[in-house]
Every structure is written in C-alpha cells, then in structure tokens.
Fold this sequence. Notes:
With 222 residues, the chain is α/β, with parallel strands linked by helices. Helices cover 41% and strands 13% of the residues. It is globular.
Amino acid sequence: xxxxxxxxxxxxxxxxxxxxxxxxxxxxxxxxxxxxxxxxxxxxxxxxxxxxxxxxxxxxxxxxxxxxxxxxxxxxxxxxxxxxxxxxxxxxxxxxxxxxxxxxxxxxxxxxxxxxxxxxxxxxxxxxxxxxxxxxxxxxxxxxxxxxxxxxxxxxxxxxxxxxxxxxxxxxxxxxxxxxxxxxxxxxxxxxxxxxxxxxxxxxxxxxxxxxxxxxxxxxxx
Length: 222
C-alpha cells in the first residue's frame, strides 16, 4: 500500500471532491457547454481546448469559455439557462467512476469510515451524478458550490461538511485533484491527498499534499 493508502486508512472520515476526483465528468460538461453555445448562437469550443476552470463553479467555467470565445458578457444568463436545461436532462451520459473508486469506497465503508463530498458543482447536479454512478449511498453529506456561503477554496464548504458528519479536521482527509482543494484543506488544517489523474494540471503541485496517488487501484494494494 502506498503512502496515500496508509493516510486514508488511518482516518475516521474521508471527504472527496467530485469532478476529477471520484468521477470523470469532463465529457458531459463539454457537451453541455457546446450545446448551450449552439442554442445561444455561438460557435462550440475548439476540440483541442480543455474545459477551463473545472475546479470552480459553473459560473466561473462559463465565464472562462465566454472569454476564450470573445462572447459578450450580456450572454451569460442565457448560456447558464441553456446549460442547466441540457445538463438536467442529458448531463450524465458519459460520466464514469475512475477505476477502482467503487472498490475503494466499499472497503472504506466496511471499516466504518464516514464519507462525504465537498464540491463546487451545484448540489442538485452533484446528487444526480452521484446517483447515476450508483455511489450516492456511500456519503453522509454532500455540500455543493451553492450550499455554503462561499465555494471552495473558501473553507466554509469543508467546515460545513465536518459539521454535518460530526468530525473535526484532525479526524478527516480531503481527497481532491486541484489547487482549490489543496488550498481549502490547508485553511482548515486538514490533510490533503492529491488524485493526480484529475484536472489539476501543474498548479496543484505548488501546494502541499500529505500524499499523492494516480489510481484508486493503487490504494487497494496491501
């Protein structure tokens, strides 16, 4: 078992980011963005362009796409509405758990670990994709970007999760893929474990992590 596995197995609570940490949601988000752009009369994102700001709120993602496409700011409300309508009905077609996630969650549940999700995704969308991937019952709390008074990296969402699962920072680990997750964890003095196969890019390596791992399958090895 690697260092990440040892750290995760010695805490009584695990808190996960969602997009890029538990589930690969980028294809669905890209498709919803392109549909919204089309519905509002704009060109789709270039195929080679990564979805920007995957660590942030939907508004931040759409704003970054608008800037890259030179779309007037006045189009924001219509784009957000079009995105929400598409994502509600078609948002989880291609969403997939990262390899090993289900086995890892089962293992943690069997040892009595409390688990939760802290994401910048809108909470209702987070609940839908967790249910679609059949892992929602594992989590005692799901806090979204619209749940707390501020989204990550502000500590408020993580503090709300801790309150809902009746844990203190020293009892928990935050598992995430971006610098936003790392910064959020550091602000509440919580261990951060980095999922390197997510959407974090290079910036996340500028922030401290208690451990890093590439695959959940590595965490299952004894």
